[in-house]
Amino acid sequence: MSANSKAIQQDSDQEGPITLGILNAVQDNSELTQRSVASDLGIALGLANSYLKRCVRKGLVKVKQAPANRYSYYLTPKGFAEKSRLTADYLTHSFTFYRRARLQCTELLESARSNGMATLALYRVSDLAEIMALCALEAEISLTSVVDSSVTIERFCSLPVVQSIDKAGDVDAIILCDMLRPQQSYEKLAAKFGAGRILYPPLLGIVEQQPQRRSGGVR
Fold first, then answer.
1. Taking the complete model, does pTM exceed 0.90, yes or no?
2. What domains lie within the chain, and their CATH numbers?
């Protein structure tokens, strides 16, 4: 599958979770703003705007103009039904994802250890990073930190969160855990540190630009 096809698939995979996030946000607060939705969901403002408009077009959300040029958003009966369906799908997917991710994380860490990579750092705060940290703890593998400049928290899964790789210490490799833009993060990290130092589980669907330079990702 080409890099473009992977990107399209990743965008498609995000549609359900983002739509569910939008519907949950509308139900929790009818006076929300597009900016607050973008911040809460961790997505770009333009993407939040696009999804809100899509929900309105589909009849899932009703919008009314409020005083001071503001808008109020409400779930329609169709929106409530879709929210219930997406919630059920999400729970099923989450269980399947957890089992798959845990297996791949364990295999990746075992491969890293067998290749002499003893000190590792995680890249991006995410559900995958949480599973990776749990597997590392069970396997007694050392993780120095989680690198993520997009969050303000100081710790994640008992690990310090640092703003750049330079602050992660002297690591043998970096484990990619970015679930939103994995290909983009992989290419950025590989260009800076070399593909051989970037590890990732297969579920991220990374396409290596130079296949002969293996990333160390578990196959």
1. no
2. 3-75 (1.10.10.10), 97-204 (3.40.50.720)
